[in-house]
Backbone:
């Protein structure tokens, strides 16, 4: 390619930031670099996302000079790199203050007063995204800190960049964060605070996947091994790849990311592909509002994910694994990177895992603020350095996945389930739960409950039992509705909560468990505002590729705003309800991916089940 | 049309039996549903489909129902499988097509997309039903003498990006930028074309289905209200510039060349030209010396 690059020059800071992730280019004179080494840069495109993070983290935005330098190094056309950078919410394409406070405006935090917080921040700190001030603030989609909202994330570009979260936050916290930055803020709550069951001995005894959270030191490989770590991998090596796949198949484990696809079938399909290389992608991009289970697992027990991924790779013949971690999780990133480095140093990852002649490595790819990248094919495009747009299926990832090769994509929770399966056998695992839903499930309980957090229960408990376990609706208020499965899920009424939280139970009640979101709404929740936020979320997060979703999510939000805010005649009201249904049906039928196909589900269920918008 | 250099010489393709709207149809393996529909004489509307480009299945106007699939499938890209039962024209597919036409029509100026008005009638689409609503309306970008970019007419079919990029020109001057409703075709940081990697081959203009990319001559004549396709003649000839021998179709009005296209079935360039063939026509008609 004969590329043409922007005429703007990078700054020294930008060059250094790129050096740190891409390696130094030839130094000719001071920091002036040799140009034109592009032919050496073949297959550098997958470094694009990390390089964009490096620029953003160092100078607070992606400048024309910085982008041009990045394109020269990676041999990427500037227009394409611009297209990729402008796709992600975390990259600013305009100069802005180095310090930015992201105030969560999303669903779970809204139940906990995010609306009032945003108003107070506006009053105390002025308009969002001002220039010429030390820090800017902006409303943000879900930060995944739903158990202790309303939450804020503070980022500060520099060398090194800093990030911190405060949750729950008040307006004064935002003002202080704008003044002092993330370094001046207090320590984050311990991870185990997100697991209320761990507080009591009988609660802790129920935990399988979360049993080590708060018990082991997440930074210590020795502590992990002292608590049963790497026993499963040893057992997996003993039973061989086909043995592992047989146990996973016998366990009836299904994917926990929302689609509930049988894990054993996926693994067997990849293992059987004669094409090499095989890749493993761990989907840790949980961005569904109200989902935070993967964060708790990674922060509290990162080695368990590494061990589980190693077992999966061994069974399916993968040589390289990727963890696609959502960008808004600074602590999870730190813990997981440390754990991968430690496992590598000690021979649990690398060319010869545990001295058994099996090679496997894991790379973390940090997301940059795009819900759509949790879609199983969008995640490939994002890792490869392209816009995170979903691909057309078929072909499916097990045949043509990452870099066009057979790929296993599994959610964090799905993968860590493999440890008890391998240790205790597939049939023993299948005996837990119900006939149609085996094993335990991690639920993310948020909103109007006394003790929000992640709860792990064998499949079969009812929604009422789960809400009671979380302490019920506090302060004498009453339950109004529960949003199951997040923004892409559906509402159930207060009088409908006696069904079992299983795949078949949810299906029979015409709802979905999705990724395990249980967002509890009490009688003080302003339902129209809540629904408008759902519509705004999808409008914001649509990738824009297909017409039904790109325009449909906008028309859906417009109709919802007219219905809930405007003075309307009965005829206009009916016409707008018809628009919602017509647009919703087309989004469900004709969108490329699950985002568009579910963008109307929650609002539809609010109309049909809760009687909203009447 | 396949070029002589690409004529497949591999194993013969097997015939696959499928059902379209209740009728048994045999098509060759590897064909798309759209290919099968065309061969069968079944009309399926398309917007983002390009006969010389890989399908991106973004517009979703060509969706059909395939039995056993939870959602509708894009006929332009889905390959036929033995035994597929396809319905191209039932209430469900008509609803999605109508909605795609309404959603696009309410946000984009489709007046220069020739087929859309007929489809709106056929599917009873009413793009005005949303009332006051968000559109992509913006001013026309005129930053060079050869072609203009009117993104008020852009449906984001990706064809210009693919024609500029690795499928044809390898210039990579433009890309889709932004996200969701704010997604748009852009150079890096939206710099003007003369500052971009554009080489003015005009292959993006060739594939644009809605007139968002237009010869400057056509744009100026439309503004002056002198553009009259019924008074135009098309003459296919060979480009005189070099030895490649690309086919040109000269569009003339009042004996003046107003735009140049290239036949997509041409074995030489498949509709692609360079700046000379596409825009270098002034010398044949600037005869008067002032």
Residues:
């Amino acid at each position: 390619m004969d590329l043409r690059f922007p005429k703007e020059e990078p700054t020294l800071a930008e060059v250094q930031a790129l050096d740190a992730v891409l390696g130094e280019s030839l130094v000719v004179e001071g920091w002036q670099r040799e140009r034109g080494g592009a032919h050496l840069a073949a297959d550098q495109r997958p470094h694009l996302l990390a390089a964009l993070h490096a620029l953003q983290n160092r100078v607070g935005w992606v400048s024309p000079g910085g982008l041009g330098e990045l394109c020269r190094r990676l041999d990427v056309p500037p227009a394409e790199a611009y297209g990729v950078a402008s796709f992600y919410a975390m990259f600013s394409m305009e100069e802005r203050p180095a310090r930015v406070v992201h105030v969560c405006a999303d669903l779970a935090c809204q139940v906990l007063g995010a609306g009032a917080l945003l108003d107070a921040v506006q009053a105390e700190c002025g308009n969002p995204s001002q220039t010429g001030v030390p820090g800017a603030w902006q409303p943000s989609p879900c930060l995944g800190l739903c158990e202790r909202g309303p939450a804020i994330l503070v980022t500060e570009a520099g060398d090194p960049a800093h990030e911190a979260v405060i949750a729950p936050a008040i307006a004064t916290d935002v003002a202080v964060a704008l003044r002092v930055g993330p370094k001046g803020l207090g320590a984050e709550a311990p991870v185990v605070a997100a697991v209320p069951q761990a507080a009591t001995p009988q609660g802790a005894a129920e935990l399988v996947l979360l049993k080590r959270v708060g018990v082991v030191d997440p930074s210590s490989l020795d502590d992990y091994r002292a608590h049963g770590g790497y026993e499963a991998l040893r057992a997996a090596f003993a039973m061989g790849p086909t043995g592992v796949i047989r146990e996973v198949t016998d366990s009836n484990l299904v994917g926990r990311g929302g689609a509930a696809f049988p894990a054993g079938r996926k693994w067997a399909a990849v293992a059987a592909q004669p094409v090499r290389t095989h890749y493993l992608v761990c989907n840790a991009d949980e961005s569904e509002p109200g989902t935070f289970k993967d964060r708790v697992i990674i922060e509290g027990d990162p080695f368990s994910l590494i061990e589980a991924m190693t077992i999966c790779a061994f069974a399916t013949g993968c040589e390289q694994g990727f963890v696609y971690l959502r960008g808004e999780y600074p602590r999870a990133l730190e813990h997981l990177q440390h754990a991968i480095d430690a496992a590598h140093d000690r021979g649990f990852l690398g060319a010869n895992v545990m001295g058994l002649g099996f090679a496997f490595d894991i790379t973390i790819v940090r997301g940059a603020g795009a819900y759509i990248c949790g879609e199983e094919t969008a995640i490939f495009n994002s890792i490869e350095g392209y816009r995170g747009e979903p691909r057309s299926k078929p072909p499916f990832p097990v045949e043509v996945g990452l870099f066009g090769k057979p790929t296993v994509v599994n959610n964090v929770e799905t993968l860590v389930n493999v440890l008890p399966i391998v240790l205790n056998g597939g049939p023993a695992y299948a005996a837990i739960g119900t006939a149609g839903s085996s094993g335990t499930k991690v639920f993310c309980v948020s909103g109007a409950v006394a003790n929000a957090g992640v709860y792990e229960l064998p499949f079969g408990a009812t929604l009422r039992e789960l809400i009671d376990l979380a302490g019920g609706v506090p302060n004498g208020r009453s339950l109004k509705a529960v949003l199951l499965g997040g923004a892409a899920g559906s509402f159930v009424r207060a009088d409908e909560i006696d069904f079992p939280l299983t795949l078949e139970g949810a299906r029979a009640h015409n709802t979905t468990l999705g990724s395990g979101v249980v967002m509890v709404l009490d009688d003080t929740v302003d339902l129209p505002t809540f629904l408008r936020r759902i519509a705004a979320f999808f409008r914001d997060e649509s990738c824009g590729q297909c017409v039904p979703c790109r325009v449909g999510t906008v028309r859906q939000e417009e109709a919802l705003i007219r219905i809930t805010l405007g003075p309307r005649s009965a005829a206009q009201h009916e016409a707008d309800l018809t628009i919602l249904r017509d647009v919703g049906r087309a989004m469900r039928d004709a969108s490329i991916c699950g985002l568009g196909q579910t963008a109307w589900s929650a609002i539809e269920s609010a109309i049909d089940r809760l009687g909203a918008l009447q | 049309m396949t070029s002589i250099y690409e004529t497949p010489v591999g194993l013969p393709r097997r015939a696959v039996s499928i059902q379209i709207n209740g009728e048994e149809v045999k098509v060759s393996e590897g064909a798309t549903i759209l290919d099968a529909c065309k061969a069968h004489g079944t009309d399926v509307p398309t917007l983002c489909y390009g006969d010389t480009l890989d399908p991106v299945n973004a517009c979703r106007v060509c969706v059909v129902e395939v039995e056993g699939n939870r959602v509708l499938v894009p006929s332009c890209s889905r390959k036929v499988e033995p035994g597929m039962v396809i319905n191209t024209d039932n209430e469900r597919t008509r609803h999605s097509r109508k909605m795609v036409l309404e959603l696009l029509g309410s946000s984009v100026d489709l007046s220069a997309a020739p087929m859309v008005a007929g489809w709106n009638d056929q599917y009873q689409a009413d793009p005005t039903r949303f009332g006051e609503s968000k559109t992509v309306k913006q001013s026309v970008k005129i930053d060079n003498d050869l072609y203009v970019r009117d993104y008020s007419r852009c449906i984001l079919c990706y064809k210009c990006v693919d024609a500029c990029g690795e499928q044809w020109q390898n210039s990579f001057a433009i890309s889709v930028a932004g996200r969701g409703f704010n997604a748009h075709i852009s150079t890096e940081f939206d710099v003007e074309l003369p500052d971009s990697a554009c080489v003015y081959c005009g292959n993006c203009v060739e594939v644009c289905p809605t007139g968002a990319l237009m010869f400057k001559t056509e744009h100026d004549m439309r503004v002056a209200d002198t553009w009259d396709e019924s008074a135009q003649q098309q003459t296919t000839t060979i480009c005189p510039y070099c030895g490649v021998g690309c086919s040109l179709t000269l569009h003339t009005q009042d004996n003046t060349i107003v735009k140049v296209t290239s036949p997509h079935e041409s074995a030489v360039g498949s509709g692609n030209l360079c700046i000379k063939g596409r825009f270098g026509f002034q010398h044949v008609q600037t005869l008067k010396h002032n």
About this structure: The longest strand of chain A covers residues 318-325. Residues 26-41 of chain A have pLDDT under 50 and may be disordered. Chain A has 25 helices and 15 strands.
